[in-house]
Amino acid sequence: MNGSQTLVVKLGTSVLTGGSRRLNRAHIVELVRQCAQLQAQGHRIVIVTSGAIAAGREHLDYPNLPATIASKQLLAAVGQSSLIQLWEQLFSIYGIHIGQMLLTRADMEDRERFLNARDTLRALLDNHIVPVINENDAVATQEIKVGDNDNLSALAAILADADKLLLLTDQPGLFSADPRTDPDARLIPEVEEINDALRQIAGGSVSGLGTGGMATKIQAAEVASRAGITVVIAAGNKPGVIGDVMADVSVGTRFHAQKMPLETRKRWLFGPPPAGDIIVDEGAIKAVLERGSSLLPKGMVGVEGDFSRGTVVRIRSQAGRDIAHGVSRYNSDALRMIVGQHSQQISQILGYEYGPVVIHRDDMIIR
Ligand SMILES: Nc1ncnc2c1ncn2[C@@H]1O[C@H](COP(=O)(O)OP(=O)(O)O)[C@@H](O)[C@H]1O
Ligand SMILES: N[C@@H](CCC(=O)OP(=O)(O)O)C(=O)O
Predict the structure, then answer these.
(1) What is the ipTM metric for this complex?
(2) Is any atom of ligand 2 closer than 6 Å to the C-beta of 73?
(3) Is 211 near ligand 2, meaning CB less than 6 Å away?
(4) What was the pLDDT predicted at 1?
């Protein structure tokens, strides 16, 4: 549908519990209703949900546990299942299916895992299933976790190729100081640029429910806005807030998406030097350079080097000309088997497939 947008909605523990010790079902169903309405209009919605730890506490009737990481992981393991059941129940009221994705930082930093997560997310969205994402708290160690769902939602927004990221919390937006402690704090409606002065006004969470407060929301806004995604921080209990953000009605604090988003997104994928070469014919060079096409197996004439799926490789001509660099959707062994073949043959030859293209145009930088 024309004008269809992808929106990632992050709901903090503060929103899901309404500041109480239990999940506020009546409030969550209202947010689900807004999401269902937007999905019916052709938009794509991704939910990033906190609340597993709070749900675990509620489910186990507020147990007396030592203040350790293991206790939090225990609570998250118990609570995540109640939490996902709740999302499932509430979306089913509107006949919408959900798909659970539990991620860690490791899923974003390893290229192959990044691509796998991105494929799953896209497949869910293509099939009108709402992805419901949380950090995999039960297994995430200090080294591999994102640590807070604000930053996780920014990564999810990049994965989903989102237009907008909405961080719903218990305040109307970002204030000039923490409104809980400073009665003179004013709402900041627009942020053009995130700088040190702005970072300083954002404090941590004082409610004891959330993780990170406004500080992690600003970090998330920085990551997402640099990737060309508009970010809004707003109150979860503001009537019609999700629809307002989708319709660009002024609400909460809006961070402008930065320019040249595609290149920034691509750069996020790149970094290491190419791990191998894909040699292509003249037809493929024309398609890539003149028509901005993805690279298909048909245009390949050879593969050099050993690399895994998700690795950055060079596309070059038979004469050795550097054409483009891009993320290969297949490993080098698989590519050697499908050199020169039609895309329809891929699954027959390999016994599996990751789609018809070898390197997608969105994952490619022309040299
Ligand atoms: N400059 C600020 N503007 C608004 N809120 C702030 C600011 N600095 C700190 N905060 C605090 O951040 C809290 C929201 O973050 P947090 O408790 O982590 O909630 P969530 O569960 O929604 O992520 C607010 O309740 C507020 O006390
Ligand atoms: N993953 C954790 C939430 C972590 C988090 O960032 O919480 P919040 O600040 O409330 O968004 C959970 O499900 O309890």
Answers:
(1) 0.98
(2) no
(3) yes
(4) 47
